[in-house]
From TrEMBL:
The lineage of its organism: Bacteria, Bacillati, Actinomycetota, Actinomycetes, Micromonosporales. This is tRNA-specific 2-thiouridylase MnmA. Residues 138-140 are annotated as: Interaction with tRNA. GO terms for biological process: tRNA wobble position uridine thiolation. Its main location: cytoplasm. The gene is mnmA. ATP binds at residues 26, 119. Its EC number is 2.8.1.13.
């Protein structure tokens, strides 16, 4: 129970369905006052109090589990290390993988519980397959696609058949004080929302060059390549405008040379994505090419693709080019289904390329 409306209603529904429910709030910060406050996060002291009050209203036992050290090692340290390596991680995805459905689930099973219930907007069908929520605007199946078949077998997502408006209305009917609490935004462990400043505090200043991909000229400098991500346009502070006057975007980040490469928007286009460490949420590794859709960022639109397994990697050949695809994000494959799109599997994006464009900034390399 994070202290938000979704997890409160999920707990209430589980209790109303007759389950023996215990509420658990995760203390994830070594110093809770350094995490987001003002009812905007999921790790604050206010959130813990809100979760406890919701549990009291529902009438279930409530505990706080201290997982600050595990969270710092598996999520915060990983976040910093990924940016230092020129990648753009998704900490919510990592938290689901390492904390909520690994550390928490393992402890719950050891204590004799059968499953972990969360307020994620996603569905588990009668066949046990993970599907998108009916509320596509709130769908969170993308950040759950790292879960294994065994983890899903011990998971319950009661909200997948409801819209967010339905959830808030139900919370009000149940007299849950969090009915109108704002959703959490941004990254919970960055108190002021300044990701660049947070990374600077962890990694320090590492000045380097910003290079134009077309001319090879140095067109600016930076204080740390970790402050940039593929597809970024704002905040580049380039000294020399492009010859054609068009805006330039970050095309790639090369930690070895501490270089940020920029160029025109069309140079961002890729049509092949390679993912490492695939997890086949559907339960089996595809034996042949699969026609499906892939989602390449948390709130990105699905792209038709052909997915196959090659040397243990997930390879997605996009049917139309996509722009601004960053290494470190997830590629999630979905199979269209009349009952709702089914998650086939996911992988961490390692490299991308444009077919027939070998040697371009978007070919191979770290983005």
């Amino acid at each position: 129970m994070s202290g938000g409306v979704d997890s409160a209603v999920a707990a209430a529904r589980a209790a109303a369905a007759g389950y023996d429910v215990t509420g658990v709030h995760l203390a994830l910060s070594r110093n809770p006052q350094t995490y987001r406050s003002g009812a905007r996060g999921c790790c604050t002291l206010e959130d813990a109090r809100d979760a406890r009050r919701a549990a009291d209203v529902i009438g279930i036992p409530f505990y706080v589990w201290d997982m600050a050290e595990r969270f710092h090692e598996d999520v915060v340290d990983d976040f910093v290390a990924e940016y230092a390596a020129g990648r753009t991680p998704n900490p919510c995805l990592r938290c689901n993988e390492k904390i909520k459905f690994a550390a928490v689930l393992d402890r719950a099973l050891a204590l004799g519980f059968d499953a972990v219930v969360t307020g994620h907007h996603a569905r588990l069908g009668a066949d046990g397959l993970l599907r998108r929520s009916v509320d596509l605007g709130k769908d969170q199946s993308y950040v759950l696609a790292v879960l294994t078949r065994e983890q899903l077998d011990h998971s319950i997502f009661p909200l997948g058949d409801s819209t967010k408006a339905d959830v808030r209305a139900e919370a009000a009917r149940r007299d849950l004080a969090v009915a109108d609490k704002p959703d959490s935004h941004d990254i919970c462990f960055i108190a002021d929302g300044d990701t660049r400043g947070f990374l600077h505090g962890k990694l320090g200043a590492t000045p380097g060059d910003i290079v134009d991909a077309t001319t090879g000229e140095v067109v600016g400098t930076h204080e740390g390549a970790y402050a940039y991500t593929v597809g970024q346009r704002r905040g580049l502070d380039l000294r020399r405008p492009a010859a054609d006057g068009r805006p330039r975007y970050v095309l790639s980040i090369t930690p070895v040379t501490n270089t940020v490469t920029v160029g025109p928007a069309e140079a961002l286009e890729v049509d092949r994505v390679y993912g490492e460490r695939p997890v086949w949420t559907g339960g089996s590794v595809p034996a042949a090419d699969v026609e499906c859709e892939v989602q390449l960022r948390a709130h990105g639109a699905p792209v038709p693709a052909t997915v196959r397994v090659e040397d243990g990697r997930l390879v997605a050949s996009l049917h139309r080019p996509a722009r601004g695809i960053a290494a470190g994000q997830a590629v999630v494959a979905y199979r269209p289904d009349p009952a709702g799109d089914v998650v086939l599997g996911s992988a961490t994006i390692a490299t991308t390329e444009r077919a027939g464009a070998a040697g371009s900034p978007a070919s191979g390399g770290t983005h």
